[in-house]
Amino acid sequence: MGQTAKLHYEGKEIELPLIEGSEGEKAVDCGQLRSATGLITMDPGYGNTGSCESQITFINGEEGILRYRGYPIEELAENSSFLEVSYLLVNGDLPSPEELATFTESIRTHTMVHEDFKRLFSALPKDAHPMAACAAAVGALATFYPDSLDPRDSRQVEISVHRLLAKLPTIASYAYKHSMGQPFMYPDNKLSYVGNFLQMMFATPCEKYEVDPVIQKAIDMLLILHADHEQNCSTSTVRLVGSSMVNLFGAISAGISALWGPRHGGANQEVIEMLESIAEEGLTAKQFVERAKSNDDTSRLMGFGHRVYKNYDPRARILRKSAHEVLSSLGVQSKLLEIAMELEELALEDDYFGERKLYPNVDFYSGVIYKAMGTPVNMFTVMFALGRLPGWIAQWLEMHEDKQRIGRPRQIYTGSAERHYVPLSNR
Ligand code: ACO
Predict the structure, then answer these.
(1) What separation in Å is there between the alpha carbon of 320 and the centre of ligand 1?
(2) b/e string for 84-110 if b means 16 or more Cβ within 10 A?
(3) How far apart are the first and last CA of the chain?
């Protein structure tokens, strides 16, 4: 037996095996704890709980390191493309030129959705949030593609993976077009993945949209930065829902809903709304930082803090630089970027944030870039979902390859002891 941890309980000593990862992280394997002792572990919020072993993404939150399949995020952001990173995450290795060409061609030729599928959007109110529309539409893909739903059939899985990667930009743009009351644009498969998405978002039948290379490159990089982040809330959701053997579309739809929340992907929308309200109310950055430090949960400094990073989020570092480059290349003067930088400077010097190890996260600067590029605010979290999709898929695939059991946490019951039903007339 390798290294173990010892637990003393009711006069007995129980040895629990240790598991060690390729970067030296260690875990106590509690798999036999309940059968040996009757005990379970308790860890609400799962801050100390590993739900799986994974070969996809490595994070060292203390040192601010993020790698996909071993490759540092900085190198991928600088040199790769979103489709190449998607291939890497889903398949495990960087593709050869031929593999990338075949993969790109397959994604390129699956972008269109069934004509009847569009009617789904017309059932939604005009002010439907595009995240709700996307979650509903991705779930509904299962009704249009019953031929590729079996998670145990590798060919069906491959087809549904390609369909989803190809169609989510189309679905996302339709969610937006519906909210604007504009006609849906067909995909133009001559364009790149991002160029096509921009065209479907911003072109109309009366007005062509010329894809700006600066915007295209910046969005491609943003998607790379969001592509995976190991066992975060939405990814754990995809794994947990997927462990029931539901089809890929159902699991990803659940992941989109999880991402929507303001404590997770919804924070990028909240950051811009926070910066706008600071500008509108004429608050100083100092006043807002003081407000965020108060016990009132609603006025947190959005875009700050992270469950895992207790250091500067490496994605925020890349985006901070990119925000300046993109804005200057587009010739945009941004009051919001100025406020963001002031907030960052003040918070990084403040003991409240220092003691709690609260640093800027990926959402702090992404919204400023999206805004400068003309992306509507309610689409920010949808952009996050587009980026996170290959990560969710890779994690769903890995969970099935590992033949993980259905996810089913336990609990400690703290409710009433047994009591007996009292007829309504006697209450
Ligand atoms: N502003 C002010 N105070 C904060 C902030 C913040 N942004 N974040 C955490 N704190 C404080 C909490 O009030 C708490 O203080 P206390 O110990 O005095 O009670 C302490 O720091 C710890 O906070 P928790 O909420 O317990 O930390 P947790 O790890 O559970 O939460 C989270 C992490 C949700 C990201 C949190 O930092 C937060 O709400 N940040 C703002 C929202 C945000 O930017 N979310 C995006 C995360 S990145 C992503 O999902 C892509």
Answers:
(1) 20
(2) bbbbbbbeeeebeeeebeebbebbbeb
(3) 60
Residues with CB under 6 A from ligand 1: 263-265, 267, 292, 300-307, 356, 358, 361-363
One-character DSSP codes across 363-425: HHHHHHHHHHTT--GGGHHHHHHHHHHHHHHHHHHHHHHTTPPPP-------S--------GG
Residues in the chain: 427
Predicted confidence band of residue 79 (pLDDT cuts 50, 70, 90): very high
123: tokens are 């059932």
**Considering only CA atoms, which residue is closest to atom 39 of ligand 1?**
263
Compute the distance from residue 270 Cα to the ligand 1 centre, in Å: 13
Q: Which residues are catalytic?
A: 306, 363
306 Cα: distance to centroid of ligand 1 (angstroms): 6
The Cα-based distances of 150 to 86, 298, 400 in angstroms read: 22, 43, 11
- Torsional sign, CA 388, 394, 398, 401: positive
Indicate which atom in ligand 1 lies nearest the CA of residue 293: 2
Tokens at residue 244, please?
């029931």
Per residue in 122-144, pLDDT (tens digit) is 999 999 999 999 999 999 999 99
Q: Which atom of ligand 1 is the closest one to the Cα of 352?
A: 3
User: Ligand 1 mean position to 353 CA, how many Å?
Assistant: 10
At 167-179, the pLDDT tens digits run 999 999 999 999 9
Can you say whether the dihedral through the CA atoms of 79, 82, 88, 89 is positive or negative?
positive
**pTM score, whole prediction:** 0.92
In whole angstroms, give the CA distance from residue 236 to residue 223: 20
Read off the amino acid at residue 103: F
Distance CA 163, CA 176 (A): 20
**What are the b/e assignments for 371-384, b being 16+ CB within 10 Å?**
bbbebeebbbbbbb
For residue 18, which phi and psi values (nearest 5 degrees)?
-100, 145
CA distance 87 to 397: 13
Alpha helices, H only, 17-153? 33-37, 73-79, 82-91, 97-108, 119-122, 130-144
